[in-house]
Design a protein that fits this description.
The complex is a heterodimer.
Chain A lengths: L1 E7 L2 E10 L1 H16 L7 E5 L3 E4 L1 H17 L2 E5 L3 H9 L8 E2 L2 H8 L4
Parallel strand pairs in A: 2-3, 2-4, 3-5, 5-6
Antiparallel strand pairs in A: 1-2
Helix pairs in contact in A: 1-2
Chain B lengths: L1 E7 L5 H14 L7 H18 L8 E9 L2 E8 L26 H9 L2 E7 L2 E9 L6
Antiparallel strand pairs in B: 1-2, 2-3, 3-5, 4-5
Helix pairs in contact in B: 1-2, 2-3
Classes of the chains: A alpha/beta, B alpha+beta.
Chain lengths: ~120, ~140
């Protein structure tokens, strides 16, 4: 799985592409930890744009859960957006869409996370 | 249509099994929207076997088969590792808050919710998990 990072104002957008399965989970987790640690400048918010994410398993859900929790503890806004149907289904069945903010697209997620935490 | 494969119970074999499933999907010309349930079941159950069962000095063998009949697809995963019924895992609390949320047992929970039927048997020293779902034809 490939992950691109973009900075938009104080928000960091992570864009995972491909399959977030057991094999990809550890690498993605390490990348998100780096983003959250701020690598110099602390992001005011983190958005994971899933428009290119084709698949997620429970190993991938765990990474989202840990990142959401770490963000909450650090006082950062955290949101995910643009879920494809296969990923959306796994988020819904697991109940994760009730504890993690999920938005239809990146623009909406950005508008929401810009508000002061 | 039926296909069968076997791999050692090692995490590195997951991509091999995923490819096996994807090839079956293309060969049987099944609707792409239905793959997620089976890809997920294959990963969750196979990784459970990998995590739960390696008696000292021996890597269990995992047999995977797919059978399509009368619009129903059955995925069967069998391993000769230690006796373990994944269906005996307690269901996770999917209403817990962000702080209290746990991922243990979530994989098997997803499989049970997304498949139509799931059953476990301990048979001749093997664990056998059978999962079936009706495959919806895409509306033309």
């Amino acid at each position: 799985m490939n992950v691109r990072l973009e900075s938009i104002g104080l928000t960091t957008v992570a864009i995972p592409e491909g399959r977030l399965d057991f094999g990809a989970a550890a690498g993605f987790q390490a990348q998100l930890e780096q983003v959250l640690a701020g690598a110099g400048t602390k992001p005011a918010g983190v958005i994971i744009d899933c428009a290119g994410l084709d698949y997620v398993s429970s190993a991938g859900l765990r990474v989202f859960l840990l990142a959401a929790r770490a963000s909450q503890r650090a006082g950062l806004a955290f949101a995910i957006c643009a879920l494809k149907p296969a990923v959306r289904e796994v988020f819904d069945v697991s109940g994760f869409s009730r504890v993690i903010a999920v938005f239809a697209d990146r623009a909406t997620a950005l508008a929401q996370t810009r508000q002061p935490a | 249509m039926k296909r069968h494969t076997a791999v050692p119970s090692e995490a590195a074999q997951l991509p091999v099994l995923t490819q096996f499933l994807q090839e079956f999907w293309s060969a049987a010309d099944l609707p792409p929207a239905e793959t997620v349930t089976f890809e997920l079941a294959l990963e969750e159950i196979f990784m459970n076997v990998v995590m739960h069962g390696s008696p000292a000095g021996r890597v269990p063998r995992v047999e995977v088969s797919l059978a399509l009949q009368d619009g129903r697809l059955t995925l069967m995963i069998e391993d000769d590792g230690p006796s373990f019924d994944p269906l005996s895992l307690p269901a996770p609390d999917v209403t817990a808050s962000l702080e209290e949320r746990r991922v243990g047992g979530l994989g098997v929970y997803l499989v049970r919710r997304m498949m139509d039927a799931v059953s476990y048997q301990r048979l001749r020293g093997c664990n056998r998990l059978s999962m079936t779902k009706r495959i919806r034809e895409p509306t033309p």
